[in-house]
Amino acid sequence: MGLRASATGVLVGTVGLLMPTVAFPTTAAVPEVDIPAAGAGAGQTVGKSRTLRTKVRTVKRHNAGAAGYRARARAVVRHRIVLRAPDADNPIIATARAARVGKARQSARRAAARSAVHRAVVRSSAAARRKAARKLAAKGGSAVGAPAAGGSFTWPGDTGPDGNLPASLSPTAPASPPTALGADRRAAVVGLNVWDEDSWDRAESQLGFRAGVVGLFADFAHAPDFPRRMADLIVERGGSPLIAWEPWDSWTGGVDQPDYRLRSIIAGEHDGLIRRWAAQVDDFGHKVLIRFAPEMNGDWRPWSPGVNGNTAAQYSAAWRHVVGLFAQEGAHNAVWVWNPIVESGGQLPMAEVYPGDDVVDLVALDGYNWGSTRSWGWQGYDDVFAPSVAALGRIAPGKPWLIAEVGCAPGGGKADWIVELFARARADGARAVVWFEFDKETDWRLSENRSTSAAARESATRDGWLTGGDHALIESQW
Helix (H, G, I), strand (E, B), or coil: what is residue 253? Predict the structure, then answer.
């Protein structure tokens, strides 16, 4: 998907996630209620292995979340006691006498009940994760990574206003038809494509886990330099950078951009920019996943064959030219991700723009469930991804694959769709799923609401998935 770049070339925007703050009036004597600790002992380290300690940080996260539950529950208790206080000057009593006390009491009862449910969920989850961590350690495997900055998140396990969990949080995930893609069954990485650092922070806080891959967007016109500051921050927080490097002017938009025709890249007109990026990537030192000119099989980008004077042969030649310049500059830490969009009929076949196994490290797909925003309506994994996953297996047999962009339009089934997507991608051997965490054409985000956040958190912290927090472990996946 095309995004508007800032003057630095990294996409910027504003995504707000505001949680209401409720102030409860003070009373002279509010008795404390003993709320039992959730997941007692869950924060203890299992074993002495550094890798295992990293993997069981999720248990500490659940304990941190449990502390939030207990505080909320106590606030609920104070609220209910104040409602019943005889003090006629109490502001809530005055409001109650204005015919709202019934509604307030009902809200307090519901919140207290939900707090109790969530404490039980945390206790159960923490125990299960300790058991899973021991099992994975015994097998030499790995579990999930660290929580978001701050060590806690908002109402873990919470869903929507009805307080119900999604119906399909434990689906049986049938695999797509067998493919010839890499049979590597190592853990898959959960990632987020983000606007900027602020939206990245907000998303992780809402979701309750760190992204193992952080996707950024940069264009030729407005990104003269590799985004080193953001890349350093991604590594510091235990992830890998994934950069959509796009040869166009994203501020202008449109496909008619003669300065960025593929033949201009082949002719060396952009070699200065490409070599500068290569030298900066080499200096960075860590692996950088680069999806150069993605979604090339569509017709909405100036690098796509069939528009702007381009051909399929020129796309492959331009790709090989860019990769060759990086090799000349010694930037062997660049990981080249060939990234078409899923085939949906009427598009250029992916096979016609594949540049060759020798210049591609990973293959990837972008795909979206547009829901009611498009005439074809709601689509599942089998509709969006399965046919193209099979096609990748024929085009690049043995190459590891990932989902570089994915999103789902709002709707009552979005939480279940998220769960299915993660389960099916894992069953099909995806090396990573990087969500398009944007409110753009529609609200694609995992963090759209509590229900979708809970579904994402449940999926991302299952066995076989890696979240951020351990850079060396994440980088070893590529």
Answer: coil
